Fold this sequence. Notes:
Elements: E1 8-14, E2 34-40, E3 43-51, H1 53-70, E4 74-75, E5 87-92, E6 95-100, H2 113-135
Antiparallel strand pairs: 1-2, 2-3, 4-5, 5-6
Helix pairs in contact: 1-2
Amino acid sequence: xxxxxxHLYFEFELDDDVQREEGIEPPPLLEVVxxxxxxxxxxxxxxDEAFPVAExxxxxxxxxxxxxxDGRPFSYESRLSAxxxxxxxxxxxxxxxxxxxQEELPSGVTHPLADFLFAARDxxxxxxxxxxxxxxxxxxxxx
Length: 143
């Protein structure tokens, strides 16, 4: 964790029941769940005990690829929820800000885009590794 941007970290832990049994198809993407906490500054901006961590990872991976081309902010849209923008990365005049529906007021903490890209890619890599180890499949192959 020493190489991560200061105070910008996406933490997760897969549920114990996220496993793949031999000869059984892997579960759908939305069933790869776990505890998640997203930090910006000293604040926990978002937390959930049963969150689709692989779905978030795939959406973050896509955003990391496209933001350099079009500068669009990130908005997580889950197929499990009708609420738009559960988690957002918004561009401000002084940097990028991590926001969520769990905050009444967005944090005043901003970070350079490079820090968000680093934290997001780190999260994606750690989720991919955890899913590979537990289930023997890539998050990119889950339906």
